Amino acid sequence: MSIERANVDAADEAGRAALFEGEPRTVHLSLSADQRVPAHDHPDRQILFHVLEGEIALDLDDETHDLSAGDVLRFDGDCQISPKAVSDARALVVLAKA
């Protein structure tokens, strides 16, 4: 078994950092207060969305889920997803092949 290590402090201008190559895709998301990621989907994936810090209003299709540090949500990647930071926030997002 190989072991890989990543640091969640690395992020691009959009606040995203892919933590590992290959599967499952693992992304660190860092958003400033009121910053929103446009609606999108991840077909053929199961998503695990873990809020590490702050608060995020996560729109999934037509429903909003208010999440705060420590909350974890699992959902089908066919949903339209659009996270918006209520306060400065960080999340770990795991996208596994369904």
Automatic annotation (TrEMBL):
Domain Cupin type-2: 34-91
Matches recorded under InterPro entries: Cupin_2 (IPR013096), RmlC-like_jellyroll (IPR014710), RmlC_Cupin_sf (IPR011051)
Pfam families referenced in this protein's UniProt entry, alphabetically: Cupin_2 (PF07883)
Listed SUPFAM superfamilies: RmlC-like cupins
Domain of life (superkingdom): Archaea
Protein name: Cupin domain-containing protein
